[in-house]
Amino acid sequence: xxxxxxxxxxxxxxxxxxxxxxxxxxxxxxxxxxxxxxxxxxxxxxxxxxxxxxxxxxxxxxxxxxxxxxxxxxxxxxxxxxxxxxxxxxxxxxx
Amino acid sequence: xxxxxxxxxxxxxxxxxxxxxxxxxxxxxxxxxxxxxxxxxxxxxxxxxxxxxxxxxxxxxxxxxxxxxxxxxxxxxxxxxxxxxxxxxxxxxxxxxxxxxxxxxxxxxxxxxxxxxxxxxxxxxxxxxxxxxxxxxxxxxxxxxxxxxxxxxxxxxxxxxxxxxxxxxxxxxxxxxxxxxxxxxxxxxxxxxxxxxxxxxxxxxxxxxxxxxxxxxxxxxxxxxxxxxxxxxxxxxxxxxxxxxxxxxxxxxxxxxxxxxxxxxxxxxxxxxxxxxxxxxxxxxxxxxxxxxxxxxxxxxxxxxxxxxxxxxxxxxxxxxxxxxxxxxxxxxxxxxxxxxxxxxxxxxxxxxxxxxxxxxxxxxxxxxxxxxxxxxxxxxxxxxxxxxxxxxxxxxxxxxxxxxxxxxxxxxxxxxxxxxxxxxxxxxxxxxxxxxxxxxxxxxxxxxxxxxxxxxxxxxxxxxxxxxxxxxxxxxxxxxxxxxxxxxxxxxxx
Lengths: 95, 495
Description:
The structure holds two protein chains of two kinds.
Chain A: H1 5-14, H2 21-38, H3 73-77, E1 83-84, E2 87-88
Antiparallel strand pairs in A: 1-2
Chain B: H1 10-18, H2 24-42, E1 45-48, H3 50-65, E2 77-81, H4 108-115, E3 119-124, H5 164-171, E4 177-182, H6 188-194, E5 197-200, E6 220-225, H7 228-238, E7 268-272, H8 282-297, E8 301-305, H9 313-328, H10 348-359, H11 362-375, H12 380-401, E9 407-411, H13 427-431, H14 438-443, E10 447-454, E11 460-467, H15 472-486
Parallel strand pairs in B: 2-3, 2-4, 7-8, 7-9
Antiparallel strand pairs in B: 1-3, 4-6, 5-6, 5-10, 9-11, 10-11
Helix pairs in contact in B: 2-3, 5-6, 8-15, 9-11, 9-12
C-alpha cells in the first residue's frame, strides 16, 4: 500500500515537521520504498508470539518517594532559547 | 617505549605512566599536537577541549605524585562521542537542532571514565543523532577514514557510522580510546572500517543516563580501542549499575582484563549458516574462515548453528528504531534548549514545525516520519507490534543457538570501507551495512568487532563475536585468541 503525498503531509503534521511541496514528494517516495521493503515481515508467522519491547528481564525499579533533588531553576533554564521571569517563554497561546 | 607516545596501546601507556616513564601531561600534549596536525583533514574531533585535557592530566600527575590510588584509566587521553552530555562542553549529537547546547550535567559513562582518571581531548564526530552508517549525516560535515585504498591516496573513504569520529580518532592515534554508542552497529561497523576493536556490551551493562537517546531499547555505550586488552580495561571503567537509568542492570562488573589469559580451550564457537548471505564477497568469507581456523587452532571447537530469522532483523530494526526515535526526538521543539525558529505572529505549532524543519537533517526527518507512521492509529499493530513479535523470534534464535555454543563468530560488515557519497541516495543499500550487527542489537547481546586482515584494496576487514547476555568475558577471551592468532598490526599510513 503506497502512501499519498497528502498522507505523508498528515504524518509530518503529527511529527511537527513542516514540509514543503518538493520535500514532501521526495519523502513520500522514500517512505514508500522503505515500507515496501518492510512488508516482507508479513512472511513471518508470529502467531502466539508475545511482542518483545525490552530485552531487560529486570522489573522496573522503584525509588523512595522523597525529594532528592531541587533548586535547579537556573540550571534548567540555562540553555533555553528564550526565557522570561524565570520560566521558558513560548509564542502566545491565547489571545 | 615507542618513540611516539601516541603509538603506544592504552595498556602500554598505563604501564608507562605507572613506571613514571612519561607523565600524563606529556602524553596529553603529544595527543593534542597530533590532533592539531591531523584533524583538519580527518574531521574526527568536532569540539576541542585542550584546557580540560591539560587540567585533568596535571591533576592526574599530581595525584600519582602524592601516591594516591589511581583509576583504571588514570592519566589516559580519550575522545568522547558528541552523543554524550559533558558538563559545560558542547554536546550536540551532531545536529543543528542542538546548536550551542552545553549540558549542566555529566553523563554517567563519562563520569565513570573521569572517576577512573581519563583525560578528555574533545568530542568526536558522528552521524546526526547516531542515525547513519557512514558519518555523512553530521552537521559538522563528514569524517574521513584515515585509511586509503592502496594506489588511490586521493579517494576519501568513510570511517563507518555512527561512531565514525571515534573510530577515525582511535585508528589515527588521536586518542588511546574513544567512547562510542551502538544502536544497530554504530560501534562495531566503524571499528571494522578502521581496523580497530569495538565492543557493544550487553544492553544494560552501561548506563544510558546523559547519553542523547536514539532508540532507548537498543542504545548501548561501549569503548573503541586499538587492542582487545584496551577494550577490556575501558569497558570495565565505563560499566556498572546506575540508579538514574531504570534499564541499567544490577550486575557486578567483572575484571575483564583478567579473563584474557584464560584462552579458548574447550569453548564452542558457533558459525551461523544464515550469515553467509547471497553475494557475500570471497574476501569476507575467507576472513571469516580464517577467524574460525585461528580459534580452532587455539583449542576451541567449531560448531554450525542456525539463526533462522536473521533475514528479518534489518526490516524489524527499521520499524523499532525509528518508532522509538520519533518519540525520543519529540523533545526537540525549540522550547528548552538548542535552536528556535519563530517569526512574529507564529503560533506554538508554527514554532515547533519550523524549528524541527530547520533543525533536523534529511536522514533524521525520514526516520521520524517513518516512526510516526508506524506508531500511528491504525498501523501500530500491523507494523510496530508485528516488529516486536519478530524481535522476540530473533532473540529466541540466539537463546536456542547458545544451547549449542558459547560464542558466535560472524563477519562485522558486508564490505570494506566505501567512498564518501556512495549509497547516499539509497536508504536500503546504506542500511545493509548493519546486516550482521543488528540481530545481536535486537537481542540485547554483547557484540565485539575486531580486525582480522586487509582486503585486496588494502583496507581493514573485521570479524564479530556475539556472546550470551552479560557474558562479555567469553567474548573477550575469544577476541584475544583471534587477535593473537591473526597478528593484525597494520595501521593507516602517515599517522
